[in-house]
């Protein structure tokens, strides 16, 4: 059986690591994975998880999505420069009041999350069109569909990703190339940990007292509750990615958690945009007790689901 070359970015941890290992250990050996990361000093966890697949069905290579030369050098090292499946996964987060962020910080988020994708696609898309086959999977976010309080810049980067892919998909279909957007919600990874560490050193000197209190006193607790109740593991998201990769007709969009489907549907139900804005505003600022109670219920249901599907994890703390 012919194998497919799979290039994955952002594999030092989280979803990228989980997906790279999952594909490399495919029992039918259908994939040869080029797992990439910007900092090769962080390859240890991937090497450990890869085990016997290392240098067989999985290779680790350096790739910085913010550098065109790095992208080209990585591509040049691939036999015939053939990438059958591109998984654009590298990304960074940013939370907090807009006044806290420098333009350099904002540009960095856009450079990695959006322009990093563009650089990759520019390299792999022409050969995919020439071969009239290929699959580009992009790790987007539910926040590419729905804005969220104090996630302004991150949402902007993911909205850009969604618009770029939706436009490009029209051309891709003409050439037999599939584009898929994977849209997870909160995922419990180093990504989350880094966000909270950055908040600890955030400069609030330009932020008014009311906004600071909403962020520190409400949003941070809300965010941790959401991650606790709805957070998926990298392995769970990776399984959704595998299903999309294996599909005979890959979907354009795939949300990894069913709880978000009504939220995105609500957005498109009112062309004026007022309905979802009003609903979210009331839910967050006027009915926060109901919201927290709902999260506690979802947390319990999530725990029961995982208990039934796999080894028994620790039960959640009582609400």
TrEMBL record:
Coiled-coil annotated spans: none
Binding site for NADP(+): 10-38, 64, 158
Lineage: superkingdom: Eukaryota
GO biological process, one term: estrogen biosynthetic process
Annotated GO CC locations: cytosol
Binding positions (substrate): 141
PROSITE patterns according to UniProt: ADH_SHORT
A Pfam entry, by short name: adh_short
A GO term, aspect molecular function: estradiol 17-beta-dehydrogenase [NAD(P)+] activity
Active site: 154
Record's keyword terms, sorted: Lipid metabolism, Oxidoreductase
Family: Belongs to the short-chain dehydrogenases/reductases (SDR) family.
Protein name: Retinol dehydrogenase 8-like
Species name: Phascolarctos cinereus (Koala)
Gene name for this UniProt entry: LOC110197440
């Amino acid at each position: 059986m012919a194998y497919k070359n799979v290039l994955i970015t952002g594999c030092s941890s989280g979803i990228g690591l989980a997906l790279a290992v999952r594909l490399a250990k495919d029992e039918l050996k259908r994939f040869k994975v080029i797992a990439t990361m910007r900092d090769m000093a962080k390859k240890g966890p991937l090497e450990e998880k890869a085990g016997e697949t290392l240098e067989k069905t999985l290779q680790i290579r350096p790739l910085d999505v913010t550098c065109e030369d790095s992208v080209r050098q990585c591509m040049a090292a691939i036999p015939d420069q053939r990438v059958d499946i591109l998984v654009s996964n590298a990304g960074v987060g940013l939370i907090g009041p807009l006044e806290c962020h420098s333009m350099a910080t904002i540009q960095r988020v856009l450079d990695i999350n959006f322009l990093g994708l563009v650089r990759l696609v520019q390299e792999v898309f022409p050969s995919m069109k020439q071969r009239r086959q290929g699959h580009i999977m992009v790790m987007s976010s539910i926040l590419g569909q729905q804005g969220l309080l104090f996630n302004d810049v991150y949402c902007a980067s993911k909205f850009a990703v969604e618009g770029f892919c939706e436009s490009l998909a029209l051309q891709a279909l003409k050439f037999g190339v599939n584009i898929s957007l994977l849209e997870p919600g909160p995922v419990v990874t180093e990504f989350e940990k880094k966000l909270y560490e950055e908040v600890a050193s955030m400069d609030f000197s330009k932020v008014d007292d009311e906004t600071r209190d909403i962020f520190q006193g409400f949003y941070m607790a809300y965010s941790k509750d959401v991650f606790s109740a709805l957070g998926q593991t990298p392995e769970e998201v990776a399984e959704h990615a595998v299903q999309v990769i294996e599909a005979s007709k890959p979907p354009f969009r795939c949300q990894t958690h069913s709880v978000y489907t009504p939220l995105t549907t609500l957005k498109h139900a009112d062309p004026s945009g007022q309905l979802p804005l009003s609903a979210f505003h009331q839910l967050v600022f006027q009915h926060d007790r109901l919201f927290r109670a709902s999260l506690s219920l979802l947390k319990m249901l999530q725990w029961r689901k995982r208990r039934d599907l796999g080894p028994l994890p620790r039960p959640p703390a009582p609400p």
